Amino acid sequence: MQEETIMKQILTAVLATFAIALSAQAEEALSLTPQETYDMVQEQGDELLFVDVRDPVEIMFIGFTDAVDKNIPFKLVDRSAFLADKGRFAMNTNPEFAADVEKALKEKGLSKDDLVITMCRSGSTRGKPSAEYLLERGFTNVKYIDHGFQGSGAKEGKKKGMRIVNGWQNDGLPWSMTLNPEKIYRP
């Protein structure tokens, strides 16, 4: 009896350790570099969906890459709700986000089991959360671009705070200020 209890405790500890390790690997597996994403789009673009999850107004002022399949915002700016403490407007989850991503997959002949890559401005505020949001809704293969389209702000120097470190733009990948009207989100 006592040996059986000890074995159960050991087995439980081993399984818990294995689950934690898998969870950590899954977290890391979610992110891709901009270059990895660009290479995947070039090599296997028909087998994946690359989604820019920024609000289209943001894209209009920051830039766009035609490498994406579609712009489907994860968060939409709510101009009626200004957050004075943060100095910006509220951003609310797009209630049609998952359905629009699924529709875009179907348009390419893909399913919720095919690879979806999301990209926002910096990767952390909407890129990763949008990927997690899709995973929670039954999509099985979702990744996001670490550091997003515009990248991170410089930590020091004359350009401190400016987004000149990493990201799609700073990696020298193709982008422009011209929006593709066939790809940009319009409700």
From TrEMBL:
GO molecular function: transferase activity
Domain of life per record: Bacteria
Origin organism lineage: Bacteria, Pseudomonadati, Pseudomonadota, Gammaproteobacteria, Pseudomonadales
Protein name: Sulfurtransferase
Pfam family, one: Rhodanese
Keywords for this protein: Signal, Transferase
Signal sequence annotation: 1-26
InterPro entries referenced in this protein's UniProt entry, alphabetically: Rhodanese-like_dom, Rhodanese-like_dom_sf
Family annotation (SMART domains): RHOD
Domain Rhodanese stretches: 44-161
